[in-house]
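>> Question from a student workshop board

For tomorrow's exercise we were told to take the sequence and the ligand below, predict the bound structure, and bring the output to class. My setup keeps failing. Could a helper post the expected result so I can at least see what it should look like? The ligand is 2'-deoxycytidine-5'-monophosphate.
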Amino acid sequence: MPFIVAIDGPSGTGKGTVTSYLAKKLKLMYLDTGATYRCVTLKLLNEKVDLKDEEKIKEILKNIKIDFEKDKVLLDGEDVTLEIRKEPVNSNVSQVSHILEVRKAMVNLQRKMSEGKDVILEGRDIGTNVFPNADVKIYLDASVDERVERRLKQNQEKGIKCTEKEVRENIEFRDNNDKTSKIGPLRQAEDAVYVDTTDLTIKEVENKLYKLIKSKKRDNKWIERGYITTKDTWCKRLRKAIIKGFLASLYHIFYRIEINGLENLEQDEGFIICANHLNYLDAAAIVLLNKKNIRFVAKSDLYRIPIVSYLGHTFDIIPVKRGKNDLASIKICLKALKNKEILGIFPEGTRKGLAKNVKVKNGAVFLAEKAGVKIVPAGIGGTFKLFTKIKINYGEAIDIKAYQSDDPAWIDKASEEVMNKIVELSKK
Ligand code: DC
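>> Workshop helper replied:
Here is what the output should look like for this input. Compare the format with yours to find the bug.
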């Protein structure tokens, strides 16, 4: 699986320096997306294109060739590394980058350049638009004063002449343009880590981000292993039986257990158990407190933790990445159901989802339809406080074929119906 790091933020936050350092240190391909907009700007200026002439811009975009070679930026084969950092590109790039056709073409190009690679991209809309599913998202920020000071110093070092007033005006103008643009505006992705670099040295920022990305990379490695179902050897079966027996007896010591409707788990085909989700212990209760082999579908993050990963492999827990269309997970689920196995899914998606008024997820009904299997609803009641009663009521299998129709919304309706049944069972 390619590993994608998105670094966004306004200009002057040290993005370029930090990203280039991280790319080398972490062996990631470095993509400076700002440079792609700068190349287009240079080409449009060179060809004296009116920035309102959409047709001409489209034509230019069709034929433009932008490449990165080591530390060089090539525009139509020509080295423009220095030229794109100077006037008149500086004063025009913001406007050009917010032309719809330009943005579409550059986003496509950036995605294409990154295809199948471990990559770190810096820009304005990477985490929000180019790669909304990036593995790591970082939003770098700094006060305007600090950014002006840094840019002045940088320009001095490069021998570029400018006054403080010019730099400040340019930064403020670009900030405003980038943040208020209707097309690809600069904003922090909800799941991005915010790093204020105002009082940090570049080295400190580099170290902080290095640690963050490194730990995410390690987590990902563990998570990816979760997608490999280990072989069902006698050794694994024995290990599973011992752990299951031990944990089940702990359950019986610490809780008073009542289970009803176990006969509903006697099916000739594979099926899906859908239950309400109160607590981390409820999935365990469903897996441990019966004689069946039940494979729970759980958030992939669980596999980050080595001991949980061990248990996950023992009980063949199927990982799923939240908020993403996790095809690998869907494939494992379908294969298991076709293999007549039993899956456990919480349609609330999250713990106490019902209480939090979260929309019922339709993944279980989707899988049931694709695999042609039934859904057994399970209602779990109890507080899970020690020495209290826990009740699990399994209901009759639901054949979701009864809900199928030409209306694509049938799947949501069927999911709601399954959830209603679960709620009813949890109150019995
Ligand atoms: O990072 P930079 O200063 O080289 O970016 C140049 C311009 O391109 C800047 O005004 C913002 C714009 N840009 C963008 O809109 N989206 C990106 N992903 C990267 C840059």
